Amino acid sequence: MLTTKQLQEEILRLKRENDVCILAHAYQTHDIIEIADFVGDSFGLSQRAQSAPQQNILMCGVRFMAETAKILSPQKRVILSHPEATCPMAEQLELDELRALKAKYPDHAVVAYINTTSKLKALCDVCVTSASAYKIVKALPQKNIIFIPDCNLGGWIAERVPEKNFIFIDGGCPIHTRITERDVLHAREQHPEAMLLVHPECIADVTKHADFAGSTTAIMDFVSKSDKKEFIIGTDNSIVSHLQYEYPDKRFFELSKICVCHDMRLTTLVNVYNALTGEGGEEISLDSETYEGAKRSIDAMLSYGQ
Ligand code: 13P
Ligand code: SF4
To answer: How many angstroms does the Cα of residue 234 sit away from the middle of ligand 1?
Structure first.
């Protein structure tokens, strides 16, 4: 039987031999984080892979992230480590529903959170990440906006951009929306000295209590710059574990013990190994119409500066 360390060494050898760049979203488990070339948030990973020298990209994350990597690096081979790893929120809106919304509100800009399928992105005007959403929505020339699919992130932005009108769908992250205001009150009582850091995919009754709300990378950056010793983390609980490794002299607490993304947890080291030997994973390919349309939305996002 191989130990974790032996399997990691095999993966690193295969990665070098096969010219592969391994990307790990920050919600992956620590054994995968350790063998990755880059760790980061959903869009940051694709950007790092674009400038990496390797011709093959292995995404340890969910499908929309692998599709985004393919759109940014169309000449490279992009593999999703676990073919079943999807983001449920990315598929919450049917294409025909979006077409109907666009027909009903023709003067509205259609803004898609990056957590959407490429086919949905292809029907939108511009993509945003949780890190760039505020800046882009504020800068858009249109006053009226259809924001898909996350009504919690959208609501959080809308509060900060009161001069614009928003239409939301009933979408959101099924994992972050598990966190309740009661969890906040409980955690504050248990850890009165701790700062509360949350992802804006949480419901408004949670984000309103936060000392800081931001993307996974922004949460980790916040900790790196803070001289505080204790933090309550309101996002996937893998971040609690990574932060604890990185800052052993600080203390981190889960805001909710059930904030765990099952799709992110599907990928194991064995999946990574199998994808590298050609026994697993799925190569991402997009038809030209989807590729061109989604690229247009992503390019529009980049034109505002990431
Ligand atoms: P980030 O872009 O902040 O990494 O978020 C991705 C995600 O899926 C959060 O649930
Ligand atoms: Fe999707 Fe939520 Fe999982 Fe992020 S945590 S990948 S938004 S289901």
So the answer is: 12
Report whether CATH 3.30.565.10 matches the domain 4-87+264-283. no
HEC string of 57-121 equals EEEECCHHHHHHHHHHCCCCEEEECCCCCCCHHHHCCCHHHHHHHHHHCCCCEEEEECCCCHHHH
The average confidence (pLDDT) of the chain is 97
Residue 38 Cα to ligand 2 middle (Å)? 19
Nearest bound ligand to CA 263?
A: 2
Over the stretch 129-186, which tens digit does the pLDDT of each residue have? 999 999 999 999 999 999 999 999 999 999 999 999 999 999 999 999 999 999 999 9
The pLDDT value recorded for residue 306 is 64
Structural domain spans, the chain: 4-87+264-283, 89-172+288-305, 176-260
Pocket of ligand 1 (CB under 6 A): 41-42, 87, 115, 129-130, 173, 199, 201, 215-216
Between CA 187 and CA 242 the distance in angstroms is: 20
The pTM for the full model equals 0.96
Q: Quick one: pLDDT band at residue 192, thresholds 50, 70, 90?
A: very high
